[in-house]
């Protein structure tokens, strides 16, 4: 994986003719090809995104999170955002490309929460990890407990090898970041010496994803709260 | 929930005219309405199902598990099974009804594994619980590690309240069954007195479902093995 940034597609003016009717079909804008987008090393600010593209990604995130990939229609999205079709295809090669860019944007948000939580030097490492999951739970709350976008789309699109690898790469990136404070906790004696930080991080993520799926069914934080408790009472004991 | 059986729709002859071409459209056969199907108290034998219906449900299970609900087309299913359209709609009111009956059949299988594992009087209660998850892992292996059908469809169809409640009912049924040996383990001192059996069962299921989702991404048993280990080393410690 590279640290290549996501979303800033060399299209940072709000005056693009493709984004105001009468619309035009175009494929000229450089678009990141499928599989080339990766977890960014530092999330680009929202302002770097074209306003229309940002609106499409924001509404797309909400729609994909509610309905999933196959039940999300581009036409509905265009109506909801009042964006013409040509403008959509100016910013995205295909529905798949669009979904991948929504996922990248979501991952930018998740990695932002990771940095906010894990970068706090005033807290012990395990407290920082706990803070990450609490922030993630607050994000889910703001979305009405619809679960985890990468968990949801990862399941639905697992039949597509490119998607499956990308989702696995996303989980792997989060696990590696979480493993850093777990390793620090182990070195300072807050965790047993035999704990494997990467393995523990992956277990926490898997339990969390299962709880996120259950919270989506129940529309409730209860499974998430239980997952945090069990992670800190037992998985890390 | 009642103990009403699933699948035996009063249609147990293999000589049905609806199931051999020339096909006919019919809605006369009594079909269990959406929401009325429940976890059966005792799984009906396969033989009680009409042969065509059984074929549709078997191929449907494999297809839904691979592709999910929205990406599964009835037409593809008819081609794969060489079943005429009229015959499909003789057995199922709709695609939704079909998916619910596939789920019920899958749950019959899961509850069969529960009974085989938890009903073994020669094993300690926690060993019986572990045996259930090991059998479930063997089932997933036989399917190529495509994860959990109820987890998968529960996520994709969570937008549909009837589906969501049904899936939650399915998890609840499994949790209540698993809570029985956990309670027995607690009473005989194999678990701390303060463990809540239902809560512990739900936590195990959530961790398992997250691991099943991850195993679907990786096409590998590794996350499932880790979930079993962590459940027995820590959640139940």
Defining key terms:
homodimer; 237 residues; mainly alpha; 0% strand; elongated; disordered N terminus
Q: What's the average pLDDT of chain A?
A: 82
Q: How does the major sheet of chain A shape up?
A: none
Instruction: Give the chain pair forming the largest contact, with residue counts.
Output: A-B, 42 and 42 residues
Structural class of chain A: mainly alpha
Radius of gyration of chain A in whole Å, from Cα?
A: 19 Å
Oligomer: homodimer
Helices and strands of chain A, in order, run as HHHHHHHHH
Q: Please report the distance between the alpha carbons of the first and last residues of chain A.
A: 32 Å
Contiguous low-pLDDT stretches of chain A (5 residues minimum) are: 1-45
DSSP strand tally of chain A: 0
Helix content of chain A: 55-70%
Q: Specify the overall morphology of chain A.
A: elongated
Helical stretch count of chain A?
A: 9
Tell me the fraction of residues in β-strands of chain A, as a range. under 5%
What can you see in these coordinates?
The structure is a homodimer of 237-residue chains. Chain A contains 9 helices and no strands. The two termini of chain A are 32 Å apart. The longest helix of chain A has 27 residues. In chain A, helix 1 crosses helix 4, helix 4 runs parallel beside helix 7 and helix 5 runs antiparallel to helix 7. Chain A has 237 residues and is an all-alpha fold.
Q: What secondary-structure arrangement, pairings included, does this model have?
A:
The structure is a homodimer of 237-residue chains.
Chain A: H1 51-67, H2 74-81, H3 85-91, H4 95-118, H5 125-142, H6 149-156, H7 161-187, H8 197-218, H9 222-235
